[in-house]
Amino acid sequence: MNMRTRDENKIIAIREKAIDLMVEEGLDGFSIQKLAKAAGVSPATIYIYYKDREDLIIQLATELTNILLEWSLQGFDPEMSFAEGLKVQWKNRAAHFMKYPKHVEFMEHIRYSPLYEKVRVQMTSQFGEVMGAFVHNAVRNKQLHKLSFEVYWAVAFAPLYQLMKYHSQGRSHKSEHFALSNRILMQACELVIKGLTP
Question: The pTM is what?
Fold first, then answer.
């Protein structure tokens, strides 16, 4: 029993240090050797849990994606009205970002790498089903313009991610100090809903 607890602690330490290293050094600066040193374990210990660097990154990204999906879908129902559903999505994603800012940065580092494709397939199948139903219902109920996925996503979520980026930087292009509040979040969300609604 004790041995297993220690192993769990090692996995958690490896995982947390991997996230920290990826955020600090990016994909190119990330290695098993650096991770082993940072986590206070030998590289051989890491290879017990992961085949190689790529396997570790993909497993971790998949795990973080699952956490994001859980948060995003809390209290969400694809049958909701478009306005209500989008507000829930924005609030959930913002809450996830506030709780796990490093997770979001980690995913940003791998988003434009070939490794992301392997994670994206799983994400699309899980998330796509629920969100696809939500969007189709909204279009059918004439609460949303019929748009390509790219245009829909750019209008529906890019403003949210820009606000979160300002928050993580603590400033915007104009303000020296910026913190995302619920008032700002909902003000932007209302404008997005207005822009997407027929």
Answer: 0.85
